[in-house]
Amino acid sequence: MEKNKFIVIEGLDGCGKSTQIQRLAAALRTRGEKVHITAEPTNFETGAYLRRILAESQEKDMYLQAALFLADRLEHITHPESGIARYLKDGYTVICDRYYYSSFAYQGTASDIDWVMKINLDCAQMLTPDLCIFLDVNPATCKQRIDAVREKPELYEKSTSLMKNIRDNFLNVLGRLQKTQNIVIIDANKGLDDVEKEILKYV
């Protein structure tokens, strides 16, 4: 694998993203890659505000949320010391837990998906991932996993029906973008080892 690749892992909360990201990073490091793992929302000021909105289930306007996520994403990309662009320039393979696809799917539940896509995709500073992998897991399974580890569900984890709506949005926008972007949808209902092997095959 060539260096300086930008890989995004997407999926519903509870789909196993965190586990597979750690496994992928370990496999790439074994090959001699320098790997930087990052996530959205970020640890920057806007990201901290967004995480508070999600954790406290604050009912903020979806257009406002989408704009905040865009602002956080631009900081994530362009920060001179710890931005994605800086790590790519320094020869790291960057693996990101969520990216603009999540904005399309989540904020798209109660706003104009086309508008959310436009403000992100038409932005001159936006980076297009070299590969996006969507881990597709049954929403009911994701909800069960979340309920087992959280005392209180976050904003987008309140019901299986909401998570199904988000999954439908994901599949809609990923299908639209597959014509112009490198996007893979993986059945992640299988065992962890099988999912890891499939991810490595596409990477």
From TrEMBL:
GO terms for cellular component: cytoplasm. GO terms for biological process: dTDP biosynthetic process; dTTP biosynthetic process; dUDP biosynthetic process. It catalyses: dTMP + ATP = dTDP + ADP. GO terms for molecular function: ATP binding; dTMP kinase activity. Transmembrane segments: none annotated. Residues 9-199 form the Thymidylate kinase-like domain. CDD domains: TMPK. This is Thymidylate kinase. It comes from Ructibacterium gallinarum. The gene is tmk.
